[in-house]
């Protein structure tokens, strides 16, 4: 089936569909990052030319790709510290540093359309967007799609798992690798999501009767919960990958 790839700048009427799509495509706790709450609205307001939509012939948005431009010196040390840092840098006016890199932030696919390799189309669209703007790299703080099945395995170990053909074990990392991306490093504190005990019970759909570490649905690592402080903190690691743009 043929789909149309367009930016929000070119198809502003599609913007209204993005909020519901985000809520449908992510686990509840992922939509409660304080940094995202503050900066995410700026993406379509300030940077519509960097936000991608994939729509069908009925003009239904079935997938979206979010990116920001930023400056990167090309070194491992110069990468944004986290997903949150990339979002902040990309939505904060650049001072004396012209952007030279496009950073992916998220790809969201409507659940009923998954399994059609739409993520590959979006990543290809992001690569084309970077090239169109004259950027030398597309970088991505990748959230490995199967890591939630292995929440006790350190991310540093998980990203080194490979299949017999040498490609990454993780399907989402494999999408990037097949398009030429390489692993740069793990971002250990890519997203930090705090909440009360009640918040986390609602977001996870679980009862959390005492303090401790909990494995919750769709989380990449355990949630650390304190009843004494009435606080749970989820610190998610991601892995930086780079696409070189010729």
TrEMBL record:
It comes from the Bacteria. Keywords: Transferase. InterPro entries: Acyl_CoA_acyltransferase. The keyword Transferase applies. SUPFAM superfamilies: Acyl-CoA N-acyltransferases (Nat). The keyword Transferase applies. One of its GO terms (molecular function) is transferase activity. This is Transferase. It comes from Thermosporothrix sp. COM3. The lineage of its organism: Bacteria, Bacillati, Chloroflexota, Ktedonobacteria, Ktedonobacterales.
């Amino acid at each position: 089936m043929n789909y149309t790839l367009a930016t929000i700048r070119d198809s502003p009427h599609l913007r209204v569909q993005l909020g519901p799509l985000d809520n449908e495509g992510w686990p509840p706790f992922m939509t409660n990052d304080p940094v995202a709450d503050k900066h995410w609205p700026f993406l379509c307001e300030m940077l519509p030319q960097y936000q991608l939509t994939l729509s069908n012939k009925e003009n239904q948005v079935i997938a979206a790709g979010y990116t920001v431009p930023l400056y990167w010196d090309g070194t491992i040390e110069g990468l944004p510290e986290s997903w949150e840092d990339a979002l902040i840098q990309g939505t904060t006016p650049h001072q004396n540093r012209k952007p030279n890199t496009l950073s992916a932030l998220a790809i969201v696919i409507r659940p009923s359309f998954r399994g059609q390799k739409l993520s590959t189309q979006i990543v290809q669209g992001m690569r084309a967007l970077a090239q169109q703007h004259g950027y030398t790299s597309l970088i991505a703080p990748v959230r490995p799609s199967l890591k939630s099945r292995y929440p006790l395995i350190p991310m540093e170990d998980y990203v080194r798992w490979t299949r017999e053909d040498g490609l990454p074990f993780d399907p989402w990392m494999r999408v990037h690798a097949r398009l030429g991306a390489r692993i740069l490093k793990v971002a250990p504190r890519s997203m930090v999501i705090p909440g009360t005990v009640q918040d986390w019970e609602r977001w996870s759909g679980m009862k959390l009767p005492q303090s401790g570490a909990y494995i919750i649905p769709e989380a990449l690592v355990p949630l650390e919960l304190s009843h004494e402080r009435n606080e749970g903190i989820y610190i998610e690691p991601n892995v930086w990958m780079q696409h070189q743009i010729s």
